[in-house]
Amino acid sequence: MKVKMILPALTEAESPFWRPIKYSLFPPLGLATLAAYLSPDDEIDLQDQHIEKLNLDDEPDLVVIQVYITNAYRAYRIADHYRDKGAYVILGGLHVTALPDEAALHANSIFLGPAEESFPRFLKDFRNKTPQKIYRSSIRTLQNMPVVRRDLIKRHKYLVPNSIVVTRGCPHHCDFCYKDAFYEGGKSFYTQLVDDALAEIDRLPGRHLYFLDDHLLGNKKFASELFEGMRGMNRVFQGAATIASILDGNLIEKAAEAGLRSVFVGFETFSPENLKMSHKKQNLARDYSEAVKRLHSLGIMINGSFVFGLDHDNKDVFKRTVDWGVQNAITTSTFHILTPYPGTRLFSDMEQARRITSRNWDLYDTRHVVYRTTNLSTRELEEGYNWAYNEFYSWSNIFEASWKHDLIKHKLKHLFYTGGWKKFEPLWNFLIKTGGLNHMLPLLESILSKVNLNERREMTVSQPAIIQ
């Protein structure tokens, strides 16, 4: 059987704001995971439109397409193209689960929720010529999974080919989270067996890993055993955690000992009112600055996530957020305009209040305002969002934030990481076009190397001369 697996490009990947490096970071791990359930005799072609031109002239028997909200229209056009050619087309992913009736118009079968259990069922039905129209995830487990088909991934085209997921979902339920609907009807957070996760890590070449888990520290027992098992593996890795998990207990210290060097943190908003209305309880009454200090004391860089446009935001939210990020030496910041994704409580509430102003899914990219705002106009919100990005990543603020750290090595790590990520676009574009992107991994690993905290006293004494 000939099988075509496709990740269509997100709309924003072809917008005026397109940064090729941003969309050349991670391979389509979800599709490679599903490919592991196919027969060894099947001929599989996995294509990621972000890093290659799609070949639409082939004649596959089965086409599997992963759908996000801002690639939905493109995914539907590709699906219709292959159905017209006689292929059997299945659609799955976050957007399909949120809007199954819409997606079903373009597919022979659709998949709702995670597919580790439902995809093997489909394959059995498909081979028996009895496929169903809808497949729902009824069992949530990561045990006894086959090995991910990483051989299908074009590793040399990605900066971070060693992406990995060892958990599914999140223990928290924020109103604006796109993934809550995806895990509805079963477990919303579950993990691999620790030994299986360690075995997958051990199979990956090189040193660097990027955990794409929504909350790597979400299950304390699992995370503690995972980090204990990773000690001595000589890995450096990046992942995501919450304010609460950083401040509570010693799990973040165990992560640092295992090789955690950079963490994505959802600060989102400084307003308690915004946190309450979003049901982001894990951030309430938490000291953001204290969490930052703890991470910095461990030599961990921070990618902070912030949302603009919540109902209690006003015109000064942009400057306050940027100033706080610079003063607290946040390494990188990811800003978002509040986006009410279909399937979320936020969307339902706004729809009921008649606040949704657009159902053009191409605009649901966290760069555009698609709802009726309160304290900020649409123009103020979009202009403030763009200003925040430009201001935070200005050279003056990059240098100022870098020099907030105590150790010279941490200062330089911050400077090279932030500056390299945002200020050398022509170089990234050249590396992508010439196929040399993966050669930058040793440099990334070097920047993520451990900061020796024993140097603190020595470096503090000599800092004034070094800064000059």
Automatic annotation (TrEMBL):
Keywords, ordered alphabetically: Iron, Iron-sulfur, Metal-binding, Methyltransferase, S-adenosyl-L-methionine, Transferase
Keyword NADP: no
Cofactor(s) it depends on: [4Fe-4S] cluster
GO molecular function, one term: catalytic activity
Gene Ontology cellular component terms for the protein in this record: cytosol
Keyword Nucleotide-binding belongs to the record: no
Residue span, Radical SAM core domain: 156-375
Alphabetical list of InterPro entries matching this protein: BchE-like, Elp3/MiaA/NifB-like_rSAM, Methyltransferase_Class_B, rSAM, rSAM_horseshoe, rSAM_sf
Name recorded for this polypeptide: B12-binding domain-containing radical SAM protein
